Amino acid sequence: MTINSINGSFARMLSSTATQTAVATPLKVFYLSDTSDYSLVVSITLMVTLLCVCMVIGHLFEENRWVNESITALILGLFAGFIVLISTQGNNSHVLQFDEELFFIYLLPPIIFNAGFQVKKKQFFRNFVAIVLFGVIGVFISFGIIAAGSGLIFPLFNLEGLGIRDFLALGVIFSATDSVCTLQVLNQDETPLLYSLVFGEGVVNDATSVVLYRAVENLDLSEVDALAILQILGEFIYLFLTSTLLGIAVGLLSAYVIKKLYFGRHSTDREIAVMILMAYLSYILAELLYLSGILTVFFCGIVMSHYTWHNVTESSRITTRHTFATLSFIAETFIFLYVGMDALDKDKWDMTEVSISTSIGLCATLIALVLVGRAAFVIPLSAASNLARRGVGTEISFRQQIIIWWAGLMRGAVSMALAYKKFTANSAIYATMITCTILVVLFSTVVFGLLTKPLLRWLIHPHITDVLEPETPKVPRVSSGDMNISLLEDGEPAHHPNATSKDRVLDRSSSTVHHLWRKFDDSFMRPVFGGRGFVLPFHRSHNGEVQDSRSSDHFDHEG
Amino acid sequence: MTINSINGSFARMLSSTATQTAVATPLKVFYLSDTSDYSLVVSITLMVTLLCVCMVIGHLFEENRWVNESITALILGLFAGFIVLISTQGNNSHVLQFDEELFFIYLLPPIIFNAGFQVKKKQFFRNFVAIVLFGVIGVFISFGIIAAGSGLIFPLFNLEGLGIRDFLALGVIFSATDSVCTLQVLNQDETPLLYSLVFGEGVVNDATSVVLYRAVENLDLSEVDALAILQILGEFIYLFLTSTLLGIAVGLLSAYVIKKLYFGRHSTDREIAVMILMAYLSYILAELLYLSGILTVFFCGIVMSHYTWHNVTESSRITTRHTFATLSFIAETFIFLYVGMDALDKDKWDMTEVSISTSIGLCATLIALVLVGRAAFVIPLSAASNLARRGVGTEISFRQQIIIWWAGLMRGAVSMALAYKKFTANSAIYATMITCTILVVLFSTVVFGLLTKPLLRWLIHPHITDVLEPETPKVPRVSSGDMNISLLEDGEPAHHPNATSKDRVLDRSSSTVHHLWRKFDDSFMRPVFGGRGFVLPFHRSHNGEVQDSRSSDHFDHEG
After folding, report:
1. What residue spans of B472-510 are helical by DSSP H?
2. Claim to verify: residue A313 and residue A271 sit in the same structural domain
3. Which residue among A97, A475, B264, B407 is buried most deeply as judged by most CB within 10 Å?
4. Is the residue at A509 inside a domain?
5. Which chain B residues are within 8 Å of A277, Cβ to Cβ?
6. Domain boundary among A448, A468, A488
7. B326–A319 CB contact, under 8 Å
8. Where is it localised (chains A, B) (predicted)?
9. pLDDT tens per residue, range B175-191
10. A53: closest CA among A340, A387, A372?
11. What's the number of CA atoms in the CB half-sphere (13 Å) around residue A434?
């Protein structure tokens, strides 16, 4: 696939419509008179209008249990793409094609940064081991099953031209959980444990996919041995550590600079600008250094919310909190609109030579493999982590395992990007692989996405104690509290007065590491990097009003 | 010039550096493995890092009277461009070229919207007639002088290949005041009258330039008569009115939708997203309809600050206010960095065939014409408006005229964009015109820009009463208060206790229209579109905290 720019792709989008309009009107546009420029204007207008419509629809259906913004956007995008296709009489061949660059450089970073910025840190670090287990071992298992399964089943459809490397690539493509979608279907406040497990897995997942994809591309298929596998594992550990460290370093730098130079003295805008720019810098630096930008920007978000955010003025705090959330929200909606419009990539559909029934068969196979591949690691890994935690009575219940399995089934823009990347060559079979990916993405997002909320309500809400208290509440041992799975929901103890004593004991069990960290944080980190309770002197801001940065912490992160 | 996309141009930027790096490292980047993609990552990293450095330098030099952020950015950009040129051994031929699209579609709208959003509306509308006078008649005068002057003087340099149409284009290019720069050198709070005059002129200026450029391009040079000139005027009036109406319509729509649907009930993020998207929509719709996007988005900003902003929740108010300011701030800094880096467009410099002395001569001529052209309308038009207002004692003093003249001398990205647009063809003389434009832009921004703050201090600050009170304080007549020039500074009456009684009388003089507007606003507009004092019921926001949108108006717009 030729990599096109954001505008390039936009400009291509609707180019025929634009030309028609430009001819119809006698006036010449001033700055943007060239056709490519004008068609860019047309497509931006279309996208912005659709985004506004999505917001309004999303607002009106807020109370609805089935619909969420992603699905609205996806369906609206499909609809708009259809209209465009009709109105250009099917001529927009190179129109509406997925653009990796737009996705990975502009849309993904704000979403992942915001996730790190707003994540409940205590919950996340308590489940850290389980998250890494799911995100690393899980992806390897799922990859193996999907690659092997497609390798065995696809030949039955009489397909030609697919090699081992292609099946391995399919394994990677369909193992990449869509973290954006997870953010939409799970609610951090309602189901914090599930959210932190599934979303955390999605983030770690990415680093694994980086390594796997790289490994598949560079693999010498003639000699695959234990050493090669160890090398992949080693590379993963390197990637994970360096990406995380880079994110932490940039986050700490921002905290230090803002605390030391005290930007708020002159202008809150500069403070906010520095936060936004440094957040983005962490992502793009990771890409520059061939690391996983997603991991980096996620940890940068965590550090920024723990230190930097507390070093700025009160109005900057409110602003950054909402700005990051809004940018992320717009980017998410944009992605789903885009994926929807993109589904009608006429070129690829024309190029495919297989029949409709074969297409459906291939997609059904892939979806089945995705279902099996995920079940194959969620259940054993949950069992493994339950085994380790049995004494403490904090198992992941079976109902919860179902939710974890289900909520990670959606495949999204990441899969699309990988498919477009892998199946570049202009062959019929590669076009088929791309159309299959599009169908699986649409199906999984719409069907699995639509069913998640009702499933959650059905499995969890009538049994809310399942989430908030372990099913088998044995007497907890107060012991070696590593960063382990804990079903303790420190967000909502007030709802369950009878759980308080148990909570307190559980709290102690996992509090050793936390306690050590707090001590380290208070004695070494906070004096240098600020953080909650950092004392900005009373000051006069740029516009003359006295601000006290210590007052009213609207937005208290825990831990 | 081939219109390149934001990424296209970024990708071209530094492409040679990027390739070298990509070869040097053994790892392959994952998502962004193609060279064009990687070079995009390199250039974004460079830009974001430079932006951060600009913020820090700007912060450190905040108290300095000479430096402002534009000049820092410009010099830093020049410096960075120089480093890139050196490090690629002068190979980056198509690197660092100005991109109209990036400028007009992404960077300009937030700046102008924010200006409208934060403008002191009372002051602006009081000076409306003078602003339109400067922005329309002024540009025509300046255009005439620069076109005629260059037409007469340039042939003396033995240049060949420039026709009448080119000289007319030069007239337009160098009549376009850079409103971005004005925002940086004048302070709305310190010198509100001057700010509203010079900045307001800059905005109206754009509409005039649209018409003039279009007229020059389409002019049948064989028969220029009074009718043609009338036609240009008619088209200007049409453009001005439709652009303004579109901006007002989109602004009112946003107010109505947000008030009616009450977005804040579910999510403040959606509220903010709708405001941002609709603001941008107004700009892009204007471009779609071949209107002046700058005028439209400016008036949309005014309407949004008057109605929409008051209909949202308290935290959305704080957020939008700061977000718009920050986005505008980042865009401004980016533009100056970009213009600085762009100055080293090696291709154009290589193509120029004139000697250095001729280049300097041409630039000096243009700068002289800019100086004369602006003086030629500021002084007569100020005199004309003084004549009309003599009885009320609200003349524009001579010192103030000097500031108005000086602060509008800077030429910026708009001139660059027009020059690149006009002088597309690959000829030596056209390349010379572009390098001249670059030099004039650099010189005017750095020299005129650097001198503005000291000049202001020298002319106005020791004589602050010149601004705040008329030089010849005659007894004011209380009369037909049209939207006219008034030196009344309603922002700072407290500083001048002896001016209060005069203020009160002057206030009455211009209050008739204002009074009528308030009456109309209160009886017809506010019941539909909300606005200050709009009563949102107490409500429970998405995250469960009770918010009262009526409390504590942090950010009160007047009027």
Report:
1. 500-509
2. yes
3. B407
4. no
5. 48, 51-52, 55, 330
6. A468
7. yes
8. Membrane
9. 988 777 777 777 777 77
10. A340
11. 30
In order of B259, B538, B549, B558, the CA distances from B535 in angstroms are: 10, 9, 8, 18
Tally of domains in chain A = 2
User: Which residue in A47, A55, A253, A316 has the most chain B C-beta atoms within 10 A of its own C-beta, making it the best mutation to test that interface?
Assistant: A55
Contacts of A270 in chain B (CB under 8 A): 55, 58-59, 329
Handedness of CA A112, A117, A118, A122 (dihedral sign): positive
* Model pTM score: 0.79
**A51/B276 CB distance under 8 A:** no
Note the pLDDT of residue A35.
56
Residue type, B57: I
Torsion angle (degrees, nearest 10) of CA B40, B43, B45, B48: -120
Rounded-to-integer distance, Cα A88 and Cα A94, Å: 12
Domain contains A506: no
d(CA B288, CA B539) in angstroms, rounded, equals 39
Angle, alpha carbons A57-A59-A60 (nearest 5°): 65
Decide if B463 is inside a domain.
no
Cα(A470)–Cα(A477) distance, integer angstroms: 14
Locate tokens 């993020």: which residue?
A: B269
The interface pTM score, or ipTM, of the predicted complex is: 0.78
Alpha-carbon gap, residue B339 to B100, rounded angstroms: 11
Residue where one domain finishes, among candidates B95, B117, B151: B95
Regarding whether A404 and A284 lie in a shared domain, the answer is yes
Residues of the domain holding A44: 1-95
Average pLDDT rounded to a whole number, residues A221-230: 75
Cα four-point dihedral sign A531, A479, A200, B269: negative
More confident residue, A298 or B227: A298
